Amino acid sequence: MGRFKNRQPGKTGRTRGMGRSIRHESDEEQRGYPSGDPPPSVHLRRLRADEALAFLANEVEAHRRHGTRELLIVHGKGLNTPDGQPVLGELTRRWIKAHPDEIASWRPAPRDWGGEGAVVVVLQKGKR
Known about the structure:
Elements: H1 22-29, E1 41-43, H2 49-66, E2 70-74, H3 88-98, E3 103-108, E4 118-123
């Protein structure tokens, strides 16, 4: 016999798991990202530096042609590199600064989009 076997349906009394707070219910309704939905993303994690730069250049150009205005570039925090020093983050920022004809501006990503492991770039208007 189960622990709650004696309880009859329709009787008052609290049953296990049924008493949820209002706060819990409102949290369920607000799933998603506090900063809004992220823009399309390019993931560079787990790529070597030369592969990452080539992939980034191709993806930025493709998104510009497609008319994308913002792009999330996920480079990772660099915690899994052999010497523990981040590589792709600094490389990505240098690439962004070296291509003002493709990138209008950039900013660090909000925490819920990747935080220190990502940047959000605003792309220049491209040729279609």
